[in-house]
Amino acid sequence: MPYLEGRPQIRALRNQQIREVANAAMGSKDLLAFWFGEAHLPTPEAIRAAGAASLMRGDTFYTPNLGLPELRQDLASYLSRWHRPVAADRIAVTSSGVSALMISVQAVVEPGASVVAVTPVWPNLCEMPKILGAEVISVPLQFGSNGWALDLDRLVAAIQPGVGAVIINSPNNPTGWTLSRPEQEAILARCRALGTWLIADEVYERLYFRAPCAPSFLDIADPSDRFISCNSFSKAWRMTGWRIGWAVIPQALAADCSKLLEYNTSCVPGFVQNAARVALTECEADVSRLVTEVKANQQRLYERLATLSQLELGAPAPGGMYAFFRVRGLSDSLSFCKRLVEEARLGLAPGSAFGDDSREFVRWCIAADPAKLEAGLDRFVSDQRAR
Predict the structure, then answer these.
(1) What phi, psi does 321 have (nearest 5°)?
(2) Fewer CB in 10 Å around end: N or C, the chain?
(3) Is this model's pTM higher than 0.85 or not?
(4) How many whole angstroms from its chain centre is CA 121?
(5) Rounded Cα–Cα distance for residues 264 and 254 (Å)
(6) CATH tag, 8-43+285-385
(7) Sequence-separated (6 or more) residues with CB below 8 Å from residue 248
């Protein structure tokens, strides 16, 4: 019998290095883990109660592909408070933020097309287009004492005729870098001029330290633009395990996205959607408390790590839930993080998970219990001073 093989594009996808580090240490009782991007607290009680009540009412049947009309309207109202008015018929409810991004890529990226992505970035964003047979062109952020910055001219130059889409995550995972309004305007203008699709991963827009909401393309894009904003309930509302997100799409794309949702996941469970409605309408204080805690944790981490001369921290990022810093002399962050697990019982994410240009970097999730963060810092500082 011949050897069975799948598509070469799938075999060529990058392995998830964060999972590689985590899987080797899962179940270790004395390990302090900061590798995954999720808050330490469970989902707010009001959301859990709403989900449980909906489940007990029997809301366990199929729902519309694009989401419950009530949730789509709630999302439209919520987004319209922070941005330009958004109509409910432009909302697609998805089975996670990952699903929102994958549906978007499937809807607008042709096989063989080129896709421009700003890196370093959560690896899924660069791998999704490859699943469809697209080529990904990376435009790297620049790291320095002031933190991370975009070479806007380089990005605009990379958006050439024939580029199918531009994918940007801001606030960014892992760096926390956030687009400014002038940068957004220049990128949107370039995409408009060439008819290029713009896909914005805005999952961290509420985890922003300078205002209640980070600058969004939704503030400046027209409903007719070739623009999609993807978001999730996972981060701001601490709902990673619920698997629910959304996309804001041009209304003309709604029928296509409905079909794609049918073929990918069909629909999001009704009880999950009803819980999400409560997140939008009753849990603003929970979002604010999380942002306050993450910002305080960021300050403490920078204070402690600034004592280590082998680290390059840059300036604290304006958003996100991570610290992403360079270890001088490091060439293999994957091996470095595996060693930390074994020797320091500390779990961090390797920078190489976010692109080959980040092999010298390490990511630390700072949406953590402050006491656990302090204990983790003790272990890391002790490990590095012993080197």
Answers:
(1) -135, 35
(2) N
(3) yes
(4) 8
(5) 15
(6) 3.90.1150.10
(7) 79, 86, 90, 91, 218, 228, 229, 231
Return the residue matching tokens 């790590």: 305
- Tens digit of pLDDT per residue, the chain (387 long)? 556 678 888 888 888 899 899 887 766 789 999 999 999 999 999 999 999 999 999 999 999 999 999 999 999 999 999 999 999 999 999 999 999 999 999 999 999 999 999 999 999 999 999 999 999 999 999 999 999 999 999 999 999 999 999 999 999 999 999 999 999 999 999 999 999 999 999 999 999 999 999 999 999 999 999 999 999 999 999 999 999 999 999 999 999 999 999 999 999 999 999 999 999 999 999 999 999 999 999 999 999 999 999 999 999 999 999 999 999 999 999 999 999 999 999 999 999 999 988 999 999 999 999 999 999 999 999 999 998
DSSP string, 25-79: TTT-TT-EE--SSS-SSPSPHHHHHHHHHHHHHT--S---TT--HHHHHHHHHHH
Contact 366, 290 (CB under 8 A): no
Q: Where are the domains of the chain?
A: 8-43+285-385, 45-282
279 Cβ partners below 8 Å, 6+ apart? 44, 47, 233, 237, 239
Spatial distance between the Cα atoms of 43 and 242, rounded to a whole number of angstroms: 9
Q: Taking a C-beta distance cutoff of 8 angstroms, is the pair 155, 115 a contact?
A: no
Specify the CATH number of the domain 45-282.
3.40.640.10
DSSP code of residue 228:
E
User: Phi and psi for 372 in degrees, rounded to 5?
Assistant: -65, -40
What's the rounded Cα separation, in Å, for the pair 204 and 228? 16
